[in-house]
Amino acid sequence: MRRFLSGNALSLFFLITFLLALAGQSLAGTAEYNDQQLAEGGTPISWAAFVTSSDFAVNVAENWQSEYLQFLLFILITAWLVQRGSPESKKHPEQGFSEEESRTGRYAVPGSPAWARATGLRRHLYGNSLGLLMGAVFVLSWLAQSVAGTAAYNRQRLAQLQDPVGWDGYVMSGDFWNRTFQNWQSELLAVLSMVVFSIYLRQRGSPESKPVGEPHETTGENT
Amino acid sequence: MKTGMTRMWMAVLVLPLAGACASGQDGQVSKVAGDFYAAVRGGDGVRACALLTESAAQTLTPMASAEGECATALLKLRLPGAGKVEKVAVWGNEAQARLTGDTLFLHRSAQGWRIRAGGCRPQDQRPYQCAIG
Question: Which parts pass through the membrane (chain A) (predicted)?
């Protein structure tokens, strides 16, 4: 048990803090929703009613889609583009694509995943599985944002004595794109900061950083 | 873990749809809208006022707690002679009922659906202009 915990501490830390943050969002969200209801002459609702509402779902989904987009882009773009001096970058754009470098087919090593040895579609799928999963979760989250957003937006419009809109009307609305772009810009800024700051700054012991004494010019050195 | 994530995603995708398709609520909204206009047509202002939200009743008279004053003020409005309910839209705790001669906005409280605004006329992009609410 102890071995399991120490061997998976990184994942467990983020899983627990994710659940705590989600719980905090649900409590703060209920309070904010009920403040708004009272201001509009409406009726406060329970925590259980709020966490199953479209208002909570759209707020969760809009953040999830942008986080998965961030990682999708980070995974895909770093396969093609280089940033000299960054530990997040490859040394050359061509690096890592060959069978030998990717340890696939006859270059597979003992312990390589079975699909890395396979041929055709299976190897292609497994070779892009991380990006495919991140992309699928991004698309589903964005879709969930649009569906939940339609419901939350229409609730608000009816409370303001306006006609509701359809899903197609909502995805063309300022509310949908404002929620989308405000999340995208912050995620893109965070990636930019990580790529550039890690050229010049160090974090001792972190695999996300170059070793403290590594020259600024060294690219792709994060171990 | 995989099952947990699947359930979480199902919840995120399905719950809003469930909220959007609150068809069970449509009938209740239609009934309140129909009852309201039946009371107005029958001159029963007290019954019609009982179907308004507190804030809507207060727009009719500052002394909305006095049943008689709300009823009198409501009947004096000469609301359009609305007929049957043509279309209902329910989103969360808010709803809109389109009748042949009027549009009503409703809010769901602990007492059930109540009319938040009535005698409403559309104004392009701006909110409806309403005689009540």
Answer: 64-82, 125-144, 184-201
Compute the average pLDDT of residues B62-78.
77
Size of the A and B interface in Cβ pairs below 8 Å: 89
What is the least distance, in Å, from the CA of A154 to any CA of chain B? 6
Range(s) of the domain holding residue B47:
25-132
pLDDT of the residue at B96: 97
pLDDT of residue A221: 57
Answer with the residue of higher pLDDT: A3 or B67: A3
Q: How many Cβ atoms from other residues are within 10 Å of residue A219's Cβ?
A: 19
Domain boundaries, chain A: 1-52, 57-223
Q: Which of A52, A147, A155 sits opposite B13 (nearest CB)?
A: A147
Give me the mean pLDDT over the B59-86 stretch.
79
Count of structural domains within chain B? 1
Decide if B6 is inside a domain. no
Closest residue in chain B to residue A60, using alpha carbons only: B12
User: Least CB-CB distance to B15: which of A52, A157, A163?
Assistant: A52
Question: Is A43 in Cβ contact with B105 (below 8 Å)?
Answer: no
Would you call A24 exposed, middle or buried from its count of C-beta atoms within 10 A (0-12, 13-18, 19+)?
exposed
**Count of CB atoms within 10 A of residue A78's CB?**
18
- Mean of the per-residue pLDDT values for chain A? 94
Residues 6+ apart with CB under 8 A from A108: A116, A117
Taking CB atoms and an 8 Å cutoff, what residues of chain B touch A160?
127
Q: What is the per-residue pLDDT for A9?
A: 96
ipTM value for the complex: 0.82
**The pair of three-digit structure tokens given for residue B97, joined into one six-digit string:** 């009922």
